[in-house]
Recover the amino acids of this structure.
């Protein structure tokens, strides 16, 4: 299609495309059309699946979010924006959980990106036991999937227990991070910044467990940088520090966007996410309210999209200005 | 100061002599290298330990008798070693059945998903056809849309399943497919399973990196499209396909979302695991009607064992396949 320079009408592209699939004309018999038909055949499963199991449910779900659903009979009565206003105004937990999760996500995404980048850079160097380290660092891909991360947090007693053990630690003064935190917050240097940093440090286990794939993506980017670039920089007298900022970082920074989006999505779909849990409760719990549940999941998806949009905007700007 | 300099400094001179000649540079450099490797070693050790530690703790907890849980002198090594806990967990999660079910369902599903995503990825990587950009944007959308958004409507869709009213015309009513394997198999075969957008994306990246001339040579020699795909492209793609398969298998194994929504008719380990806490009260009580409150430490111990049991087969699998898993991903992982 690309190499046809001349088009008579705006719709000639469309008619051409249709002619590719309909036998009995000139275009149908060309090699190009044959390849196009075979290619369409290859992606046919996806097209069918996407239309049947994605577009259709999406439309139904959108419809459901604007109506009252009776699950047993399978009927829907339109109620306009009632479900949305219920989610925001009447539901006692939804707003609070949503805001909580967004805050947690912002911190986690930044921390995950930084940490996975650092780890990928280290794993790309040559040192003894590198293979073992790689094997261990990709273990979280297994260990933090599906039910596993949520299961212990879902248990409300567990939270009680951790809070007890934390308070015990506090009183005995063993907790180093807590002591340091107290010291720094007393000295009054940019208290809020330190708060965020300490929140990251406290969540380091979660962050490491969530960054398996991100490390893999960064590592693949690092491996695709040609070594001759470093050699040239070395010959010109660059120090390792300089070549890191002048070569490694710019070459890998496009992957920042991929990773950032992946992290946001991953975080939004995690099982230990309280909003997801809440939506599940609304849906399968005593309420059985499918309308509200789908309204809430649309709100949730909207928030996710907004965040992906914002981070795409910021990162593309930052990377461009760097080039 | 690379190896070439040894010509001037002399291989046989000792370190301090060479250091003196280089004007203190050698010592500084060596110290820097050692410092970096010590810091790197500490960091790596710490993070690796953090990943491994929960597994070790769970393993040692799993061997402890109940009285060890309350003994504050015991941290890691159990005093009363017992295998009783495993028996309890096995009872609570209906173990042999649920594990076997999980295994064959995961295998079946990941096979379906890998076959369909490979075909689709190849289609996207190598062919030009109308609306290609649009469909690929749909793949990206598939990665981005959280399945939670459509979970409610899929739930309804499959409980009143029908294809353009055909089934209703034949049988008189829609059929309820929830609880059977059908909904999920259909979704797997049409690339709508768990994270399938990601597999399409990964595999497309791989197929694009293979030189086109390979296929052209095959076409010139008279291979058909399918033949070329099966004989030329597939054998080279095995590592990538294998890693996608492993991903899909592992994620399927621990998945709760799809099993809870569609596979309610089967005893699957992940669902039993998530329901374990609520079952405990009944299990430990003497009579059938009342429930007892299980002590918190005990609950945590049993859940920990459940998680450990879930991980063990996967970790064994991972140990055997880690080379494929790590290397093929690092080599071909998404580059763009």
């Amino acid at each position: 299609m690309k190499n046809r320079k001349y088009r008579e009408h705006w719709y000639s592209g469309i008619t051409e495309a249709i002619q590719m699939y309909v036998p009995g004309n000139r275009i149908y018999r060309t090699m190009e059309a044959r390849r196009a038909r075979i290619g369409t055949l290859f992606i046919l499963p996806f097209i069918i699946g996407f239309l049947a199991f994605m577009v259709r449910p999406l439309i139904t779900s959108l419809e459901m979010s604007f109506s009252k659903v009776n699950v047993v009979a399978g009927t829907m009565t339109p109620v306009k924006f009632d479900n949305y206003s219920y989610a925001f105004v009447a539901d006692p937990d939804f707003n609070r959980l949503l805001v909580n999760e967004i805050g947690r996500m912002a911190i986690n995404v930044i921390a995950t990106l930084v940490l996975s980048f650092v780890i990928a850079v280290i794993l790309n160097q040559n040192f003894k036991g590198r293979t073992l380290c790689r094997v261990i660092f990709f273990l979280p891909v297994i260990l933090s999937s599906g039910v596993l991360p949520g299961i212990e947090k879902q248990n409300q007693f567990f939270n009680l227990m951790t809070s007890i053990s934390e308070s015990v630690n506090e009183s005995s003064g063993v907790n180093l991070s807590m002591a340091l935190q107290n010291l720094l917050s007393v000295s009054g240097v940019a208290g809020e910044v330190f708060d965020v940093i300490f929140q990251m440090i406290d969540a380091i286990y979660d962050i490491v467990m969530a960054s398996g794939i991100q490390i893999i993506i960064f590592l693949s980017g690092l491996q695709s940088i040609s070594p001759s670039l470093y050699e040239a920089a070395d010959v010109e007298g660059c120090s390792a520090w300089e070549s890191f900022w002048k070569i490694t970082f710019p070459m890998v920074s496009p992957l920042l966007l991929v990773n950032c989006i992946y992290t946001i999505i991953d975080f939004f779909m995690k099982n230990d996410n309280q909003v997801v849990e809440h939506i599940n409760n609304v849906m399968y719990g005593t309420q059985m309210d499918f309308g509200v549940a789908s309204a809430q999941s649309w709100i949730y998806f909207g928030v996710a999209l907004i965040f992906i949009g914002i981070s795409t905007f910021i990162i593309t700007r930052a990377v461009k200005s760097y080039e | 100061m690379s190896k070439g300099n040894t010509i001037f400094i002399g291989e046989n001179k000792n370190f301090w002599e060479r250091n003196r000649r280089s004007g203190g540079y050698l010592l500084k450099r060596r110290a820097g290298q050692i410092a970096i490797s010590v810091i790197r070693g500490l960091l790596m050790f710490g993070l690796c330990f953090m990943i491994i530690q929960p597994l070790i703790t769970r393993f040692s907890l799993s061997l402890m008798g109940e009285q060890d849980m309350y003994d504050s002198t015991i941290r890691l090594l159990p005093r009363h070693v017992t295998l009783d806990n495993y028996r309890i967990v096995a009872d609570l999660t209906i173990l042999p059945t649920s594990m076997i079910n999980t295994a064959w369902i995961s295998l079946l599903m990941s096979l379906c998903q890998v076959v369909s995503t490979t075909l689709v990825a190849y289609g996207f990587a190598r062919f030009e056809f109308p609306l290609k950009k649009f469909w690929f944007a749909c793949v990206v959308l598939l990665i981005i849309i959280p399945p939670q958004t459509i979970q409610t409507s899929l739930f309804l869709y499959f409980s009143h399943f029908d294809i353009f009213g055909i089934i209703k015309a034949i049988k008189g009513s829609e059929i309820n497919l929830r609880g059977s394997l059908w909904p999920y198999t259909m979704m797997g075969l049409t690339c709508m399973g768990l994270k399938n957008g990601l597999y399409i994306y990964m595999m497309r990246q791989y197929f694009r990196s293979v030189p086109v001339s390979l296929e052209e040579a095959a076409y010139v020699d008279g291979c058909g499209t399918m033949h070329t795909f099966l004989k030329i492209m597939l054998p080279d793609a095995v590592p990538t396909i294998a890693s996608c398969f492993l991903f899909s298998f592992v994620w399927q194994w621990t998945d709760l979302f799809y099993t809870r929504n569609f596979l309610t008719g089967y005893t699957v380990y992940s669902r039993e695991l998530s329901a374990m806490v609520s079952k405990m009260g009944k299990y430990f009580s003497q009579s059938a009607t009342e429930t007892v409150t299980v002590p918190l430490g005990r609950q945590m111990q049993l859940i920990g064992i459940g998680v450990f049991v879930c991980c063990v087969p996967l970790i064994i699998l991972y140990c055997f396949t880690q080379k494929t898993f790590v290397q093929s991903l690092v080599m071909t992982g998404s580059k763009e």
